[in-house]
Design a protein that fits this description.
By secondary structure, the protein is mainly alpha-helical. The protein is built from six helices and three strands. The structure holds zinc ion (ZN). The site of zinc ion has 7 residues, from loops.
Length: about 140
């Protein structure tokens, strides 16, 4: 009887070790991320931290821009903090002293170019919708600034 207990404890201890190792190997796939709302709330609560990491960027403005973009493109992300970090890195590249000259992209509506307003963005992967025609705008001009 005593032997059996000992064995069981040994097995449990071994299982625990395996679990710990698995956690080290694949922590992301095992852990479920909080909901989008919670993740955004967390980003919001860390604005000061982000501002320290990206001092040249208006974090709140970029966060609003990212949320608009996600809404406009109907995109879902698993890890919004990771996505936001990449978003901010991208922003530093377009405003900073990057050796690559930043470009600006003009998005125009294909339906009624004369009357619909153009959008200008430094990103080439934005999705702007025309308020009038409800159609997605396409890049019609690339300007090196
Ligand atoms: Zn239009």
């Amino acid at each position: 009887m005593k032997n059996k207990d000992a064995n069981l404890n040994e097995i449990l201890a071994r299982l625990k070790k395996i679990e710990t190792r698995l956690e080290e190997i694949a922590p992301v796939s095992k852990r479920k991320l909080p909901s989008k709302k919670d993740q955004i709330a967390q980003i919001n609560s860390e604005i000061d931290v982000w501002a320290q990491k990206f001092p040249s960027i208006d974090i709140e403005f970029e966060l609003a821009k990212m949320l608009d973009w996600l809404k406009a493109t109907n995109k879902r992300k698993k890890d919004y903090r990771a996505f936001f970090r990449n978003w901010l890195r991208k922003s530093t590249n377009t405003v900073g002293n990057d050796p690559v000259a930043p470009q600006s992209y003009t998005y125009s509506c294909a339906i009624d170019k004369a009357n619909c307003k153009d959008e200008i963005s430094s990103f080439k992967d934005m999705s702007f919708y025309c308020d009038e025609c409800n159609k997605i705008k396409a890049i019609t001009k690339v300007t090196r600034s």
